[in-house]
Design a protein that fits this description.
3 domains, Arc Repressor Mutant, subunit A, 9 helices, Alpha-Beta Plaits, alpha+beta, four-stranded antiparallel β-sheet
Length: about 240
């Protein structure tokens, strides 16, 4: 089975993000602020805000930071007006790339994204060129260990409303409809499962297999894009062939 190296790299990537905690907190705060402006400050009725707060807490973002971001969205603090943009691009080996962006200056961000893509072997595409390759899903990744009972996990996930549970060598991947993500996550957490990844994500419908050498080129491009303050999330459809 291909693709397991991608999950093996998740812990390393999270450690690297922890080292840039200030930048990560800035991005998370921006997501919370925009969610409040769009749907109000109550996470019980604002699903997007609830997800943003859960994500912030998963990175141990202090409650004071979360409250400031909420207040900024309510107008309690001065703040910039951000717009959400999705950029579509191709990376090395024709890998599809989706970028979720929050920016207060569309021209600046487009230039920065185009520059990083060009430098690391990618190019910006037309709207719609790769978005059709992805589906929005709740994603819960659970690392395998000797205590994990696969049948029990599958039963718990499906009874809570999950769409599918996939075995990917060293992890289990639980997929949900976006609206069912919170309840499935809560049910699995209550059953004692811990998550390597827990987010609403853009899941590729088909993958492009690349060599380990080519995957390093793609990772360098992804890292360069994630360094941009306006880029909130990078999605790709590559897997590493064994």
């Amino acid at each position: 089975m291909a693709g397991h190296s991608k999950w093996a790299n998740i812990k390393h990537k999270k450690a690297a993000q922890d080292a840039k905690r200030g930048q990560v907190f800035t991005k998370l705060a921006r997501q919370i602020t925009v969610a409040v402006k769009e749907g109000g400050a109550d996470p019980e009725t604002n699903f997007k805000l609830r997800l943003a707060i859960e994500k912030a807490r998963s990175y141990n973002m202090p409650n004071d930071n979360i409250e400031r971001a909420i207040n900024r969205g309510k107008g309690g603090l001065d703040g910039d007006n951000y717009e959400e943009i999705v950029y579509e691009a191709y990376g090395p080996n024709g890998v599809a790339i989706l970028l979720d962006v929050l920016t207060d200056n569309r021209n600046r961000t487009a230039g920065e994204v185009r520059s990083r893509l060009s430098k690391y072997g990618g190019n910006l595409g037309q709207a719609g060129c790769v978005a059709w390759m992805f589906s929005k899903k709740g994603l819960l990744v659970i690392e395998k260990d000797d205590k994990t009972d696969e049948e029990e996990l599958i039963m718990t996930a499906l009874e809570a409303g999950a769409e599918d549970v996939q075995d990917e060598v060293d992890v289990y991947k639980v997929l949900t409809a976006p609206g069912d993500f919170t309840q499935v996550k809560a049910a699995l957490a209550e059953a004692g499962y811990e998550f390597l990844v827990a987010e609403v994500s853009m899941i590729p419908q088909n993958s492009v297999m690349v060599s380990s050498e080519d995957s390093e080129k793609i990772e360098r491009l992804i890292d360069a894009l994630e360094e941009l303050d306006d880029v909130q999330q990078v999605y790709t459809n590559y897997e590493i062939a064994d």
